[in-house]
Amino acid sequence: MTDTITIRKAPGKWSVRSGGAILGETTAALELLEGDKDPVIYFPRADIAMAFLDRTDKVTQCEGKGEATHFSIVNKSSVTKNAAWSYENPLDTIAEVKNHLAFYPEDSVKVERI
To answer: Of 1, 23, 64, 68, which shows the fewest CB atoms inside 10 Å?
Structure first.
């Protein structure tokens, strides 16, 4: 049995940074809530500097969401492998996150409300 998934507009303005670079800012972020897990912020791809992201071979499968493709963040000072993911063909239950990216919480990646 999977946890209930709720998706809603994330209030306010959100940013994601890595290696001193701002990868994106948006007021159109989505917040995905799933059971007792921490909320996950999804950024519209249109609001992310995709030139900093390289698709990797990593693919994961989630029963309640579908198949996630992964991306590494590449900038002048570092490479953070498999730092972001995207459900490019999500299950109908989370269709809203199509064309969005989420980022793993790491020391080198900061997602924050500004």
So the answer is: 1
Q: What CATH number corresponds to the domain at position 12?
A: 2.170.150.40
pLDDT in tens, 1-55: 457 899 999 999 999 999 888 999 999 999 999 989 999 999 999 999 999 999 9
Identify residue 19 by its one-letter amino acid code: G
The percent helix, strand, coil of the chain (3-state, each to 5) is 10, 55, 35
Number of domains in the chain: 1
3-state helix/strand/coil string of 41-88: EEEEHHHECHHHEEEEEEEEEECCCEEEEEEEEECCCCEEEEEEEECC
As a whole number of angstroms, the distance between CA 61 and CA 94 comes to 14
> Which amino acid belongs to residue 59?
V
Domain that holds residue 79: 5-113
> What is the model's pTM?
0.94
Cα angle: 41, vertex 42, 48; to 5 degrees: 120
Report whether 25 contacts 114 (CB < 8 A). Answer: yes
